[in-house]
Amino acid sequence: MKNKILFFFCAGFFLFVTQSFSADKDSSVMKISGYVDAYYACYNDSVGAGNFQKFPSVSPRSNQFGLNTAQVTFQYDAEKVRGLAILHFGDIPVSAWSGTFNHIMEAHAGVRLCSRVWLDAGFFRTHVGTEGLLPKENFASSVSVNTYYEPYFEGGVRFNYNPNDKLAINLFVLNGYGMYEDNNDKKSIGALITYAINANGSIGYSNYTGDDSRLGDSISHTRIHQSLFFNYQIKKLKVQVGGDHCLQQHSDTTHQKTASMVSGVIGLKYQSSSTVAMYTRGEFFSDPQGFISTLFTDTKGRLTGYKLFGITGGIEYKPTDNAYIRMESRQLIMDQAQEIFTWHGEVKNNRLEFLLNMGVSF
Fold it and tell me: Distance (Å, rounded) from C-alpha 308 to C-alpha 340?
């Protein structure tokens, strides 16, 4: 019942905005669109029937059919105002999203300040990282562990400036790192800069700076997260490369020194025909101080965070531009002493995954 009320409220709100703010109705556009992704997944890690796998986001349940997302988008664009609201339902909202605003993927209103400058406020999807979260946005259906530990969503304001058709500059003032609601009285800042090299490729840089220490914490934990990414297409081959580096004060195992994380991803996708493509992705993630991932004692008695690499391979069939069927497999391999997976009662440091995804946008 609550979900139905939320759906009709957003629909009514956007119809109201359409009627209220459009002085010139011929120049305004109201769009409603949808997206559905269903899956079947298998993981050789025993976490219990119906439970989420480790690093849960896309296709997080093993040995069952599931729904990653069923979402509806309301978008309004006019000369001086704009608005966007995306509602989503399925496993992704439960496994990866805000517990408070679980079904709101994105919702913000915008006003044009001058010719090429917009001010938007509300809830946004993250501006950090190389990959998106949704399968339709990426080469692979799964996301890298690198992407899993990046923020998925944020709340605040965005200044959007497009000086020309190639360059886009976005500046953010945010509540915090991967949160809609603030957890202290401090605000964070961030930036996303993208540049279109030509019709075939682009490069981008994003960052985040903020202290998300809880109220009452006398020690600052200022975090500086930076991400650089590159996309390019050479005839039938698409290339995607990205890397992250993050520093955080007073966050090593002694809580006295600055801790650091580094991660990267590289993806290749080859379009073998008009409807069939093959893809592969390599990834690595190193957070030895465990300030982003998990701090635990490994089999050698060391206090450490996650260190891993992985390889993904798959095939995609697209009967139309707005639909896909994907079959892929991934092997994740942790540091030798990080035996975090269990299979048939045996602990181990690696996991094999199999995903079958089908998605349609409309």
Answer: 11
Instruction: Specify whether the CB–CB gap between 121 and 143 falls below 8 A.
Output: no
| Inside any domain, residue 23 | no
- Taking a C-beta distance cutoff of 8 angstroms, is the pair 168, 187 a contact? no
pTM of whole model > 0.85?
Answer: yes
Domain span holding position 130: 2-18+28-351+355-359
Q: Is 171 part of any domain?
A: yes
Sign of the torsion angle spanned by Cα atoms 206, 209, 215, 221: positive
Distance CA 88, CA 73 (A): 9
- The secondary structure of 87-145 as a DSSP string is EEESHHHHHHS-SSSTTEEEEEEEEEEETTEEEEEEEEE----SS-SSGGGSSSSS--H
For every residue of 306-352, DSSP letters joined together read -EEEEEEEEEEE-SSTTEEEEEEEEEEEE-TT---EEETTEEESEEE
Inside any domain, residue 205: yes
Tally of domains in the chain: 1
Torsional sign, CA 84, 123, 243, 228:
positive
pLDDT digits (tens, 9 = 90+) for 215-253: 878 889 999 999 999 999 999 999 999 999 999 999 888
The residue written with tokens 């439960």 in the block is 94
In angstroms, how far is the first alpha carbon of the chain from the final one?
25
What one-character DSSP code corresponds to residue 55?
S
Which residues neighbour 248 within 8 Å (Cβ) at sequence distance 6 or greater? 221, 222, 223, 224, 258, 259, 260, 291, 292
